[in-house]
Amino acid sequence: MRAVAGWTRLLGLGLRRDRYIGPITLVSFAVIAIINQATTVSTYATEEAREAAPAGTAANTAYVFLLGPLEHHDSVAAMATWQAGPFMTTALGICVAMAVVRLTRREEESGRTELLLAGDTGRLAPLLAATVQITGAAVLLSLVTVLPLIGGGGSALDLVTVFVQYLTVGLAAIGIALVAAEAAAGARTANLVSIAVVTGAYLVRGVADVLTGAAWLRWLSPMGWAQEMDPFGADRLLFALGAVALLGACLLAAAMIAHHRDIGSGWFARRRGPATGPGLRSLPRIVARLTAAPIAAYTAVTALYALVVGSLLPSVEQIAAGNEILEEVLVAADTGGALAAAFLAVMTSMLAAVAAAGGVMLVGRLGAEEKQGRTEVLLAGALSRTRYVAVQAAGALAGASVVLFGSAVAVSLSAGLAGMPWAATAADAFAAAGAQLPAAMVIVAGALFFYGLSTRLIAAAWALVAVSFLAGPIIGVFLGLPDWMVRLSPFSHAPMLPSESMRWPPVIVLTAIAAVLLTAGAASFARRDVG
């Protein structure tokens, strides 16, 4: 077909462009799966421990919301799948969705797609190539996540069902991202929409599990379809057909949209800005205008998780009493305070890592601006490189701060509605966010340092985000990482307010590190070629 002519060449090009990020993602998923399996073996090695799980942790409503009901506990593989499955499937969905946007809309914004389409490449070839490539990636990610379960007591059919569970969510996320990439005004918006839909599917599944009479909601969520497969039980593989049908429908819809839109624009057009005005002569106002929408959307998505955190605060004592892993995480925080305060501290550190990722996202925008020639136009006038970097750094740091303190607002609101004292909880939430802010600043400053060296190195900043998140004081302990690895995360050094007294030395050191990275990044940017 003429419409997809040349898609195999684009497939090869996409594989070459992802020759680094693809293997890194695969290894990351494999390592997490191996660590999760090892942690599960140490926790549920005996039949007695597995028999006690349904009446302990798994009986808690909060954990049913987060992980789903524990229906099968007769093997280590079943326990490992229940313990990490919902989080890993969500992460897989987000990863493949962002990869689809990167290979389609991001390439289009860089101008490369238009050059390719000017030759003999068909209009739909980029869509088909991205679909094939990322479907293959979803298969590999699902496979490396399931392989550590071999030998854990599940049958071959059980493991195949777990594999199909992951793949189901991945295929659904690919379809959603295809439509978002074609319809959204830009790549950043497409990413935010895709992440919001995948995260929303996870939340819908959680609501269906905890609310009486809401089980029908599972049919609205790919996470629910995956759950209905019931690995280690009925092994109903036919539910995967829903994801296949969704992917096919979304691919068809994306193709129809692609035929009716111009290259470089979405189905939903960008809001036109003012043609004249003082704001167009002020770099801070331009930065604020460009970052307001993505940060607002990112803050809203993060606040959804923060609402769940706040709602759990009144029942932390009961949750920890039936959960050895959570109790270990809170004790490892070494705060010496009440469990509720320790829970707020460690969860705020996780939210701070998410906020730092928002700042890194804004830094990634600088690379796109430079590649599209806009940075060179700005610097052609009286604007100095130092001021340009300083204003952009302020915008990225402010964006991360908005996400973090917006999460504090959400935690305060949901905790207050759940019965916690309003004023005291708000004070604790904002104090915890403020204590974690310097650690988030280090991550954002590191991204700006990489940008100062080269636009090609911005992707390395996401490795900083991954390390800070996975080796942080909650995920790192949950996964059983050694102490030296947990200490790699800057969030492991920040004061764990409100459950401990304020410690100024780590705050000062983290702030100084961020300042050094920003200064080095600005100096590097001043010496290198733009573009």
Automatic annotation (TrEMBL):
Top-rank taxon: Bacteria
Transmembrane segments: 20-38, 84-103, 124-150, 162-180, 192-217, 237-258, 286-308, 338-364, 393-417, 429-450, 457-481, 504-526
Keywords: Membrane, Transmembrane, Transmembrane helix
Name listed for the protein in its UniProt record: ABC transporter permease protein
